[in-house]
Write a structure and sequence with these properties.
alpha/beta
């Protein structure tokens, strides 16, 4: 079981002007993979709040999925928030998510999806759309378990 936290980054959802659909979509996907969602949260597009909430969840969750704030609009600051608290960036996750998404959706080239290590947790930044978030996790799902095993010290380098 992978204890998982999900953070939706959205000014509108935080203010109650928009129903969060991406968080629930990621919760359903997590159940499909056998990951145990232990906490969900909605935060506004504020770099400090995104970082603080991620640190909070990373203290108890091995996997933290963030949805939203990965575009190029002025308030899209999720990658910056995670880079500020990360110990290692894992560029392969973002590269795969963009490449696979681009095959079907040319505007995916504008996405700034990424993954990083925060403490001993794997943190993945995903698009804000439910479909995009779920698809991107599916593209990298096989690597998630192995990454978490490495972070837990359960695998050896050969």
């Amino acid at each position: 079981m992978i204890p998982t936290g999900i953070i939706t980054v959205s000014d509108r959802a935080f203010r109650g002007k928009y129903d969060d659909k991406s968080g629930p979509a990621l919760t359903a996907l997590s159940a499909k993979h056998g990951w145990d969602v232990v906490v969900t949260a909605v935060v506004p597009d504020e770099e400090a709040l995104i970082g603080d909430k991620t640190l909070e969840l990373a203290s108890t969750c091995s996997l933290v999925l963030l949805t939203g704030g990965t575009g190029i609009a002025e308030r899209d600051v999720t990658p910056e928030a995670i880079r500020a608290i990360a110990t290692k960036e894992l560029p392969g996750f973002g590269e795969v998510m963009r490449a696979r998404s681009f095959e079907r959706f040319p505007h995916a080239i504008l996405s700034r999806n990424m993954a990083a290590v925060v403490g001993r947790s794997l943190v993945i930044c995903l698009p804000g759309s439910p479909k995009g978030a779920v698809e991107c996790v599916e593209f990298v799902a096989d690597a998630i378990q192995h990454a978490i095993e490495q972070l837990r010290g359960e695998t050896q380098h050969q």
